[in-house]
Specification:
Structural class: alpha/beta
Number of strands: 9
Radius of gyration: 17 Å
Shape: globular
Order of helices and strands: EHEHEEHEHHEHEHEHEH
Amino acid sequence: MTETTHPIRISVQIKPQHATYAQFRDAAKRAEALGVDTIYTWDHFFPLSGDPNGAHFECYTLLAALAEVTERPTLGAMVTCNSYRNPNLLADMARTIDHISGGRFVLGIGSGWAERDYFNYGYEFGTAASRLKDLARDLPIIEERLGKLNPGPVNDKLPILIGGSGEKVTLRLVAKHADIWNIIAAPDEAIRKAAVLDEWCAKLDRDPATIERQVMINPQRVASADQYLAGGFTHLLIGIDGPDYDTEHLEKLLA
């Protein structure tokens, strides 16, 4: 198990579906008042549960709005779909939201998977392998553009979060590029994947302790929080859904 000095963090993903913007904003302000460390939303164009044609809003415009209506939590996408924006543009958008928020932005990114989004918005879906190849190509471009922008990120280094668990490609990209890694898995599987990440870090001469380990859990896994913590996952994340954005399970996790 990787020794880590990362503080324990509790965060929330506010899903931008089946709600008005006012309800979404209210949920973010309630989450901030509860003391969450980070507020995430997701990067999709249609609901992922409930009525497939229900109300839904776009990720990055919501994040820019949250940057103005919140004061303390870090903000980000869980996770940005790499396919939806030119990598240079994405870096610029992230840097801009970072400034709007006063340095509270984290660039969460993954290779994408939601075929309906791709089809309806005119993106080439390709294959899981081709989308990962695109992500590997674009991450250095994003990093290079972040280094060229004037002004640059508020805190010089904009944190990059990579979500996923693929052992051959994704975890190698995490070891090479990420400050934060996110996985969705039961405790035993998450801990096994973390060991694979440690192996990639050794191959790439990266100190594994420099990567914050984050796990997204469902309400049934709140009771397993201590298992994740014992396995080196110091950042626990739970989602809440519109229109009511019930925070009961988030409050249990915070407690």
